């Protein structure tokens, strides 16, 4: 059975409200992802509305979600794709061909730059050295040249791994670097400014970041034809302050008369997928009840360990808040491959199915086969509530990467 209860009103499952979960999830082979088209559409409409209202252009950051079989479905809501390098740029060009392709990489390889320029509309450099090395090539090919700046304005607490403004960061050109390395000829190559400093943040942090950008780089921005606000905007999350985002966009377009780009990954596919897993065994060690499932944090939900965070499970409560407490972990050898501690109304037993929320992002494109774990199949929950297979994986997929 698929665990659930009436008291669960978790936002990550709101697109499943009122559906027959047993019918949808009861017979799928586990572990598997289920990508939710209705949720993608819900997010897409919010983003599209924002673009229409403000004139900004919104790109999908593919590193968060690169299930290209759904690009056709989401492309009407977007202006194109953002890539972290050659392969994502090729994927965006191939599967969202009507959209723009913007590429940013921490540094470009000599043996890839020509192809990157060919498939990209914008190429954004992380340093003045890289701009000097490749900027003219991009310009001569008729493509747009960008430079990433570092406004040195940290807005995140507790997640240093996601803070490109931390002291000593390798990301973006600081004001000091700019002043000591920039010359007129190099400057004349630049069409736009890029910054990316947020992660799952609201627009108040964007607003204060913009103040730092205006303060440090305002005289540069006014000579540009575009500015890219990067990703990390939690736009499609309930409670996000859209009005302030609109204000941020109009503030810079009024001031500088340029095009604003946003390149969210998470916001495009927020809550637009689930990971279904089955309970394999329950053991008790002292006062801990360990529940071992057929999915793994290390392999299938890596951000649990990297961020770290505890994902939502449908029907589960905070540890100690209901009758039956469990520490849920994987069958892998890694002692720390623990998903988290949860409480349930009913006792768990082998064969029960657990549904993890918000599993469309930073999952299917980050998976690995550590311990020879199988890659979860990927299914699609269609708008008519039927489930269609999308991708099947096997032993061959494990073997072929080694
Ligand atoms: C990670 C990243 C994004 C997307 O970030 P989300 O948090 O998924 O919105 C966009 N642009 C750049 C340069 C990034 O590194």
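^ structure tokens above, recovered residues below v
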């Amino acid at each position: 059975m698929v665990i659930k209860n009436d008291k669960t009103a978790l936002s990550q499952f709101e697109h499943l409200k009122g559906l027959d979960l047993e019918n949808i999830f009861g017979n799928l082979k586990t572990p598997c992802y289920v990508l939710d088209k209705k949720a993608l559409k819900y997010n897409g409409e919010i983003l599209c509305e924002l673009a229409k209202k403000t004139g900004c252009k919104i790109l999908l950051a593919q590193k968060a979600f690169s299930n290209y079989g759904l690009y056709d479905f989401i492309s009407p809501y977007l202006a194109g794709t953002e890539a972290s390098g050659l392969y994502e740029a090729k994927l965006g060009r191939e599967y969202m061909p009507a959209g723009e392709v913007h590429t940013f990489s921490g540094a470009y390889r000599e043996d890839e730059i020509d192809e990157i320029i060919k498939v990209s509309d914008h190429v954004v450099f992380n340093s003045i050295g890289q701009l000097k090395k490749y900027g003219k090539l991009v310009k001569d090919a008729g493509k747009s040249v960008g430079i990433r700046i570092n406004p040195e304005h940290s807005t995140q607490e507790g997640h240093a791994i996601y803070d490109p403004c931390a002291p000593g960061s390798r990301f973006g050109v600081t004001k000091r670097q700019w002043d000591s390395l920039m010359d007129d000829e190099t400057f004349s190559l630049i069409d736009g400014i890029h910054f990316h400093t947020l992660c799952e943040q609201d627009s108040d942090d964007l607003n204060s970041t913009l103040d730092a950008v205006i303060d440090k780089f305002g005289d540069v921005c006014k000579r540009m034809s575009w500015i890219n606000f990067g990703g990390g905007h939690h736009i499609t999350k309930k409670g996000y302050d859209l009005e302030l985002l609109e204000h941020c966009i109009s503030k810079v377009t009024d001031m500088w008369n340029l095009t604003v780009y946003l390149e969210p990954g998470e916001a495009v596919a927020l809550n637009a997928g689930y990971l279904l897993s089955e309970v394999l065994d329950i053991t008790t060690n002292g006062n801990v009840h360990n529940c071992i499932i057929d999915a793994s944090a290390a392999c299938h939900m890596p951000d649990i360990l990297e961020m770290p965070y505890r994902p939502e499970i449908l029907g589960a409560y905070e540890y100690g808040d209901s009758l039956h407490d469990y520490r849920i972990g994987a069958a892998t050898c890694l002692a720390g491959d623990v998903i988290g501690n949860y409480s349930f109304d009913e006792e768990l037993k082998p064969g029960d199915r657990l549904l993890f929320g918000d599993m469309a992002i930073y999952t299917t494109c980050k998976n690995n086969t550590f311990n020879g774990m199988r890659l979860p199949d990927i299914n699609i929950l269609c708008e008519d509530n039927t489930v269609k297979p999308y991708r099947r994986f096997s032993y061959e997929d494990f073997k072929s990467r080694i």
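Residues 61, 63-64, 82, 104, 196, 199, 230-232, 263-267 surround pyridoxal-5'-phosphate (CB under 6 Å).
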